[in-house]
Amino acid sequence: MFHKKSILDLLPEIKGKYLINEPMNKHTWFAVGGPAEVMFLPADLEDLKNFLKWRPYNLPISILGGGSNILVRDGGIPGVVIKLDTPAFKEVKVEENKITCGAGLKNIELQKTLLKHELGGLEFLCSIPGTIGGSIKTNAGCFGKSIKDVLLIAEVIDGQGTTHQVPAEDFQLSYRSSLFPDDWIITALTLKTEPSSKEKIQEIIKEQKNYRQQHQPYNEKTAGSTFKNPDGLRAWELIQKAGCAKLQIGGAKVSEKHCNFLINTGNATAEEIENLGNEIIQKVKEKTSLTLEWEIKRIGVGK
Ligand SMILES: Cc1cc2nc3c(=O)[nH]c(=O)nc-3n(C[C@H](O)[C@H](O)[C@H](O)COP(=O)(O)OP(=O)(O)OC[C@H]3O[C@@H](n4cnc5c(N)ncnc54)[C@H](O)[C@@H]3O)c2cc1C
Description:
By secondary structure, the chain is of the alpha+beta class. The chain has three domains: about 5-85, Uridine Diphospho-n-acetylenolpyruvylglucosamine Reductase, domain 2, CATH 3.30.43; about 90-215, Uridine Diphospho-n-acetylenolpyruvylglucosamine Reductase, domain 3 (2-Layer Sandwich); about 235-300, UDP-N-acetylenolpyruvoylglucosamine reductase, C-terminal domain (Uridine Diphospho-n-acetylenolpyruvylglucosamine Reductase, domain 1, Alpha-Beta Complex). The chain has eight helices and 18 strands. The chain has helices spanning about 5-10, 45-55, 110-115, 125, 145-150, 200-215, 235-240, 270-290; strands at about 15-25, 35-40, 60-65, 70, 75-85, 90-95, 100, 120, 140, 145, 150-155, 165, 185-190, 195, 250, 250-255, 260-265, 295-300. Strands 6-7-13-11-12 form a five-stranded antiparallel β-sheet. A hairpin with a 5-residue loop joins strand 11 and strand 12 (about 165). The longest helix is centred in the C-terminal third of the chain and has 19 residues, at about 270-290. The two termini are about 30 Å apart.
């Protein structure tokens, strides 16, 4: 009898884990999205290298961080989604004023190291949801600072499994953008810090947390700012001007606290969230002639 080959038969042997049909709503802040055909959790760098070297080249590969800046469509993600979620990708090393962190480390977890070694300058990063590796693609930033100001060097692995040390300037980081080939995976970053004190670090972190709680949706299913600010303008002001601050489609709505944030109120589909974003783009265009650009990465296929 003829048996259809499973995708697993095509994939190389690994030390980590393959998860089949892994629901992406478990891995994204929006809590929506269909399954990843396969999710690969590499055990360590060698495992990731071997996978990339021996995988079938026509198989689509995506890389996921903390899922705080993406919208996965309801039909899921074909191919393999790589998530650097094992301890080997969460190591932190401190050398004088430099910190090297594995790409899978959550930004918020960096706090412990800053406090222990009394190193400052990265408090802003601790306040951004997501992982160290996910911060490069959009040059994540807030409170007047971005990754561009603190990045020294990144360890990257390319689509063929070869590692490279890439100096910060090669990424051409600018407002929510970078020069970054789609098949590159960040595996670690070295960041610069400055001497500080426990009290000062705690004070900055507290201030930033308070600001976010007051001005942005907190503990909500969202993916942060939906659209980039057009040059010299603020996306939220354009959204408000276009009369979109109270828009809602199904379970997806514009946040009452900050209208550049979209919220899954509980049972939204990815399609509803994407349609809401597209409706805002259209209304802002009609009102102002400007076309808002998505900051959130939309991936996968519709249902
Ligand atoms: C409540 C809230 C507030 C936010 N506030 C801010 C803010 O103030 N400033 C800001 O800049 N952002 C903000 N964001 C957006 C988001 O937190 C950042 O963009 C964050 O850096 C995304 O990291 P992530 O690990 O979650 O990446 P993901 O959302 O998982 O992925 C984002 C992109 O990065 C790529 N990627 C992820 N990991 C890697 C890797 N290791 N190598 C290569 N590519 C990778 C993915 O393929 C994808 O294209 C906010 C989001 C939320 C939910």
